[in-house]
Structure formats: C-alpha cells, structure tokens
Amino acid sequence: MSLERKIEQTVAVLKEATRDYTPVVFASSLGAEDMVLTDLIVLHRPDIGIFSLDTGRLPQETYELMQEVRRYYDVPLQVYFPDGKLVEQYIAQHGVNGFYDSVESRKACCFVRKVEPLRRALKGKGAWLTGMRRDQAVTRGTLEVSAYDADNGLQKFNPLLDWSINEVWSYIRQYDVPYNKLHDQFYPSLGCAPCTRSVTPGEDVRAGRWWWEDPASKECGLHASASVAHGTGVQPVNFQRSKAEDKAEQKVPA
Ligand code: SF4
Question: Exposed end of the chain (fewer CB within 10 Å): N or C?
C-alpha cells in the first residue's frame, strides 16, 4: 500500500473519532510516530487536543522538541505533570532511582509519573489517540485500531497501528516534520532519560527501553494500566479507583 493511501486511511480514522467521540485528545510522547500523528492532526483535525506527559525525567532533547512543536505548528501542547505528593511518597519508599530495583518498583514509578497524570488528562474525554504501531513490541501484537479502553473508560484509537517504521520515517522526511534528535543517535524508542539507552544495529527497536527487564513486561502502564496499578507500593493520594480498575486488577496474577 502506498504512503498516500496509508495517510488517507489514517485521516479517515481521525474523522471517525471526532465524529463519534468528541471531545478527542491525542497523548503525544513526542516520538517519531507521534510527530507523524501530530502533523496529520494539525493539518486535518485541529479540533483534536494534543497533550504530553512531563514525567520530570525526560531527556533534554525531548524538551527541545516540545518547544519546537509549539513554535512550528503554533498549536497549544498541553503538558501534564505528576502529582508532587505522589512523587515524594514514591521517592521516600523506593528512592529517587528505585525503578532499577524491580519490575514492581519500576511500574510504581511509571504509575506515579505517567498513569495518574494520564487519567487526569483523559477525564471527561470521549476518546483518546496514541501513536502505537503493532510491530513495535511483543506486547502490542493484539492491539486494534479502535477499541474500548475499559481501564480509562473511553474509546481508544491507534491510527498508525499498521504503519511500518519505514513509512513513519518516509512521512517525516517527505513532509519535513520536526523530530527528536535522539532518533539520530540510535534511540528508536524514547522515554525517560534514566530508562532509555541507545541500541546497536540489529537490536529490537524497544531494546533500549527498560533494557534490564524481560521484553514481556516492557510497558509503562499507559496502555496496560491494570497491571501497573497492581503492586505499585504507593498509596495514591486523593485518587479514586474506578470499578473497571478494580475488576481489571482482579485478573492480574499476583
Ligand atoms: Fe519512572 Fe523510568 Fe517509568 Fe519514567 S520510564 S516513569 S523514570 S520508571
């Protein structure tokens, strides 16, 4: 399928989302895929709000791109921060870099710095979009372009699900889309600075994310919140659990 056809299909998904689920927001991690989606949204569906989660541990290059997006597109990029009390509580329990100690400790950090702010960002929305692609990770093989997100209680769209990495970069080059300069330094997948390393040629694209963990556990919880909420080791402050979360957590093995 040509790139033009892929673009048409993706724009059709954006239109479907806004037609059926307004208000719709896009959670941008500012990775390559998310910059393609940002470009398409600005051009075709500017009524979709774009937000990003600043975990407080992002690489400098990501902050530079955040600023560049604001300048280049002249659209507001809403930024959500973690709850300060939860961060303090996490650090008191686990240490400032406690995420290296165990999967549970790492997921607890992702919960505080990503999942809880995401839930605030999605509150009151009809649908949210992500830039996830199917072949990015073993954990993403069963995703659908559109599905109900029971954890967050709204529809979730993955408009780039069937794009290849080559198509993503063809789009970026062809349409001169700004991107994170770390991608030029062998960082195909970007996240927080202490949890992301560069990869060597031939390595899996997500090999640099939480490289000390088994690939099957490599999600931050933004897309598998039930497993993250389980065993966070942090008692959320002023955080209301939904029935959907309670139900989902029961399915997570101890
Ligand atoms: Fe914490 Fe690392 Fe998750 Fe960022 S990626 S929220 S630093 S564990």
Answer: C
Query: Which residue's alpha carbon is nearest to atom 6 within ligand 1?
Result: 110
Question: Would the pTM count as exceeding 0.90?
Answer: no
pLDDT single digits (tens) 192-227: 999 999 998 888 878 888 888 877 766 666 775 433
* Residue 128 confidence class, pLDDT cut points 50, 70, 90: very high
Instruction: Judge contact between 52 and 28, C-beta under 8 A.
Output: yes
Identify which of 187, 192, 211, 222 to mutate to test ligand 1's pocket (most ligand atoms within 8 A of the CB). Answer: 192
Q: Which atom of ligand 1 is nearest to the CA of 220?
A: 3
Lookup: tokens for 67: 């600023």
Taking residues 155-179, report their average pLDDT: 97
Kindly list the catalytic residues: 220
E-strand ranges in 82-203 read 127-129, 146-149, 154-157
Using a 10 angstrom Cβ sphere, with 0-12 exposed, 13-18 middle and 19 or more buried, the burial of residue 217 is middle
Question: What is the C-alpha R_g of the chain?
Answer: 18
* CA atoms 147, 153, 157, 158: torsion sign: negative
